[in-house]
Amino acid sequence: MQDFLFYLNLGWEHIISLDALDHQLFVLALIAVYSYNDWKKVLILITAFTIGHSVTLALSILDIIRINSAWVEFLIPLTIVITSLDNILMKNKKQTLMRANYYLALVFGLIHGMGFANTARVMIAKNQSIAIPLLGFNIGLELGQVVIVFAILILLFILLNIVKINKKDWILFVSSGVFALSLKMTLERIPF
Fold first, then answer.
1. pLDDT tens string 41-58
2. CA distances, 151 to each of 35, 45, 49, 131, 182 (Å)
């Protein structure tokens, strides 16, 4: 149980900590097109991300796949650039964008999962089962994402219903900000 709680906390901190800006920006870009009433769709969306993240993390820990960490650190913010740019370009096609985000979450979750792989590979002993660490980490990650998502959805509810901000303006504002920050990260991490 102690191992499970250790990895649960590690997953939680992986998404909640100040060092997790890339993950937080990705979640923000993914859910920017949704509203508070879409909370069930958003939970499915972030679970798709966690599934992708889990698959790659497991494959990496088992040493089935291994990608140079410099490329992974470059690809992670690039996924955020693509997601936020998709929001900007398709802001008038909300339903199409929402469907596309499920695929982006799953596929880009695969890339994000490689970001923690080297650390996890070192932490988990060769003779240790990966089931408990992987389960604990991913539950912690999912719990952290749920907290972030509900904080964003509550803020969005206030902005749309009380402050009366236009939804398309919100999408454009948030996605543009996320695009700018993630593009800066991407350019700083070019692995050449």
1. 999 999 999 899 889 888
2. 12, 16, 18, 30, 21
* CB neighbour list of residue 123: distance below 8 Å, 6 or more residues apart: 133
| Nearest to 174, CA basis, from 152, 144, 143, 148 | 152
Does the pLDDT of residue 155 top 90, yes or no? yes
Amino acid letter, 114: M
C-beta neighbour count of 169 within 10 angstroms: 11
Q: Which residue has the tokens 């902005």?
A: 159
For residue 127, is pLDDT > 70? no
Q: CA torsion 65→141→169→93, rounded to 10°?
A: 50
